[in-house]
Amino acid sequence: MSVLSPRRPRSADPPAAGDDLVVVPARHRWRWAAVALVFVLLAQFVHGLVTNPGWDGPTFFGYFLEKSVVQALGVTLILTLAGAVLGFLGGIPLAAMRLSKNPVLSTVSWTYIWVFRSVPLLVQLLFWANLGYLYDRLRVGVPFGPGWSFATADLVSPFGAALLGLALHEAAFAGEIIRAGLLSVDQGQHEAASALGIPRHRQFFRIVAPQAMRAILPNAANLLVNLLKSTSIVYVLAIGELFYQVQVIYGRSGRVVPLLMVATVWYVILTAALYRSARCTYCAASTWWPTPARSP
Amino acid sequence: MAHAGTVTVILGPSGSGKSTLLRSINHLEKVDRGLIRVGGELIGYRQSGNRLHELSERQILKQRAGIGFVFQNFNLFPHLTALENVAEAPVSALRRPKAQVYERARELLARVDLADKADAYPRQLSGGQQQRVAIARALALEPQLILFDEPTSALDPELVGEVLDVLRDLAATGTTMIVVTHEIGFAREAADNVIFMDEGQIVEQGPPAQVLDNPRHDRTRTFLSKVLI
What we know:
Chain A: GO terms for molecular function: transmembrane transporter activity. Chain A: Keywords: Amino-acid transport, Cell membrane, Membrane, Transmembrane, Transmembrane helix, Transport. Chain A: The chain crosses the membrane at residues 32-50, 70-96, 108-128, 148-169, 223-244, 256-275. The structure holds 2 protein chains of 2 kinds. By secondary structure, chain A is mainly alpha-helical. Chain A is 69% helix and 3% strand. Chain A has a domain at 78-243: MetI-like (MetI-like fold), CATH 1.10.3720. Chain A has a two-stranded antiparallel sheet with strand order 1-2. In chain A, β1 and β2 (147-151) form a beta hairpin. Chain B is α/β, with parallel strands linked by helices. The model of chain B has no long low-confidence stretch (mean pLDDT 90).
């Protein structure tokens, strides 16, 4: 400690000229005490981690890159990716409708968002999986006219139900994120663009959308990470994604903790990768975004 | 009321409708009563008999491209460089060839003394520099009329001069301008016509020597006595 602390000027020192004055930073004794306490707790935790045989390192490493786990990881990634793409594709019209001056469009969008944000994803997934009870056949065609019909069970497989549930749920949140992003663009930008006579579609794509992205991207990254973790819920539909597969394995072998750790570590790695790539996207625009990724 | 090639300055206390009048001229504000014509063309509406039909957005945008507008808060596009800000509208609204527009944009930036800032983003420029880019942006459309909405009100006092210099230069070259401002000195020196507004009405108008030095209305006199200390 004494090595780190700066020299303290003694009162006996002669009064120094401007250049020689020594600045002594304020001391934070309680902060040091807190650091010491945290170190002790951390050491205890690590000690417990290393000495507890329950963590079962060999099993963990044996299954971490095992074929069925990696395949299941692929299913998780597909669900995440497809859910995000469909969710944002759905979110765009929802945001546009919600911002519309037409009361019918905005009310319909508002109601959709309200319902799908209120119903837990788990409940929704079970609901879609059981759609067949409600409508045993689905029809595509002219409203009240001719068309084709399909058995619901053929059309909505468990995987389809899972994807449908994730996408509909995601669309509600994506719609709100996109709407908030568009509203965050200063009114003056819209006025300047119209005052210059820039055509409507060009105003949107060239002027408004790039600025809205600044507000949309960080939230979209959070939503994507949430979706990645939410895919673990679809295990209730017996879809072979990461969490379901891990459960299958520990159901057979009884080694619950190391296999849960396999899933945990994979989720952590994927989450870190997603945040990392989102961060690179912000940096690319840092020349004109006043406070890039580092904003508090 | 404003003739081609002249500079009109609108004065008045805040809330007197100066900005609203200016914004109505390019239909950023809708008009309840009365007609606005620029170069003989009715703005924002089409008259048939005694009915006014509001024009479609596309037609209004086309009319606006002929009228420059300079905002109090500059409203430059923050994600585009100074050069791209100036070149955006001629390319997208007038569909001019890109190479020609960019060449002209560089000339315009040189005209407002910012040739070396072509590749800077707005947040890298001072307020005065941003406003000069905004003026170049308005000029790029070769408008028949430029509207200035308090162009120096958001600037630090030491930066006001550089923007007024550009305005004086434009006035001297015969650009038709309508300027809402509190810079009485600029009005006296550069205006052909001064309008004093209060509570949404034009109180009086005329050459600067008359309105500023010899106002006929008490309201004008009171206002000027507060501004000209």
